[in-house]
Amino acid sequence: xxxxxxxPAWHQATAAIVLASDAGVLATxxxxxxxxxxxxxxxxxxxxxxxxxxxxxxxTLEPAGERHYLERYLAGPYLLDPLYQLAIRxxxxxxxxxxxxxxxxxxxxxxxxxxxxxxxxxxxMDFLVExxxxxxxxxxxxxxxxxxxxxxxxxxxxxxxIVRASMQRIWDxxxxxxxxxxxxxxxxxxxxxxxxxxxxxxxxxxxxxxQLLLRRHSSKSIARELRIAPGTVMVHKRNLFAKLNISSQYxxxxxxxxxxxx
Length: 262
Hints:
The chain is α+β, with helices and mostly antiparallel strands. It contains 13 helices and 5 strands. The chain has 2 domains: 2-174, Beta-Lactamase (2-Layer Sandwich), CATH 3.30.450; 196-261, Winged helix-like DNA-binding domain superfamily/Winged helix DNA-binding domain (Arc Repressor Mutant, subunit A, Orthogonal Bundle). 53% of the residues lie in helices and 12% in strands. A 5-stranded antiparallel sheet has the order 2-1-5-4-3. Strand 1 (43-49) and strand 2 form a beta hairpin.
């Protein structure tokens, strides 16, 4: 590990971080510094708010990927993102491996197929910085071709202090920048749509279960969350499917996306 930090490239990268006085320049310098430590296929720095939509501060996606993943994601499906759910939690890690924080059936969800699988990411490490009770920054470091090795994870843990300090400084440098403001009313409408999905048709318990199904929890996981028997979950699931006139969780996801689009 010592060799990774005893190179001209690493010292030049950290010098660029120190010298940066602009949020965009600093974000690029941070991405470059991480690239010296581990090979990766892209980063994305997002501000998650508990009362407004996410704000993308910096990313290295190509234009087509930006349109396909970010613009569609910001239009509402972020509500189903485990990283968003983690960021707005009161207690959260400062560094985590995305795969370790997922609901147990997440990889079979329609959200995963639409917004994760198509990125072709094999692995992802996330740095988290709580800016305030309202806002948490998340820096996604992605790997497409192979998973991070244990030695690479150790190196990412080693640079965690400089990464998190840089994330905080990026936010501080852009405060007062009105270039991209998150729409609180839009987020409020989306959140209300999600929380009220099935109103007038489903019972309160069925709505709870539909939300957890959309986030791809299994029946056992839902039973643990709601402290009810797995058999009871299955009964509620059959009832809510019948009431919504659907037969799969794909159709449940499609109904929600239709509601969010409206």
